[in-house]
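RECORD TYPE: inverse folding
INPUT: structure tokens
STRUCTURE:
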């Protein structure tokens, strides 16, 4: 009861923070960080600016939370890919996941993270750090998975796991950019399949 009485002022009755964060994620994904104001975000989330500040902090904090939600939801293919049995299967799941996440019918085209990097120069230190940490963690997980594959003899001798991980991340980012530019899922999947036919590439 005491906790309810201490709820932030301006928080509307029935306020669903998870649903509001999901809507903010979609707005950032569609418009980019610079493309939307705090007032527009609050309106899209169905709350007041006062409620937004009370529940999420400012725009930078909200973006960081939206990026976390994106990683747990649309971009969760990256974590799932690591469980594939072979290095080639990992690459296939990762690139196919990038294609599907970037071309979902009911979501903006492209990738929220890539959108964020396009505005990185305008992000505050906290949001920028979160963005780079997300990318670095993604690459590090792939690198560690490929290192295990190399140790198991599943990759050719001399394969550099970090370079291979960076290669896949770069390809996934390129897929997202192409998707945002209007390239369709089938065409992007054909590109991914072409890459996979020569995996590992070096």
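DESIGNED SEQUENCE:
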């Amino acid at each position: 009861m005491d906790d309810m009485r201490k709820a932030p002022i301006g928080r509307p009755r029935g306020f669903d923070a998870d649903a509001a964060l999901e809507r903010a994620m979609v707005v950032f994904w569609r418009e980019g960080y610079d493309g939307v104001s705090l007032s527009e975000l609050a309106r899209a989330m169905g709350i007041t600016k006062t409620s937004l500040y009370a529940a999420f902090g400012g725009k930078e904090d909200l973006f960081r939370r939206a990026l976390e939600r994106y990683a747990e939801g649309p971009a969760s293919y990256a974590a799932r890919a690591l469980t594939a049995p072979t290095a080639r299967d990992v690459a296939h799941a990762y690139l196919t996941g990038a294609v599907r996440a970037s071309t979902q019918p009911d979501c903006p085209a492209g990738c929220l993270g890539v959108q964020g990097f396009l505005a990185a120069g305008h992000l505050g230190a906290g949001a920028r750090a979160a963005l780079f940490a997300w990318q670095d963690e993604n690459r590090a997980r792939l690198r560690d998975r490929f290192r295990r594959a190399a140790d198991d003899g599943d990759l050719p001798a001399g394969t550099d796991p970090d370079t291979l991980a960076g290669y896949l991340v770069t390809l996934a980012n390129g897929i997202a950019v192409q998707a945002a530019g209007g390239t369709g899922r089938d065409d992007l999947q054909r590109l991914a399949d072409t890459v996979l036919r020569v995996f590992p590439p070096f």
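NOTES: Confidence is low (pLDDT under 50) at residues 1-13.
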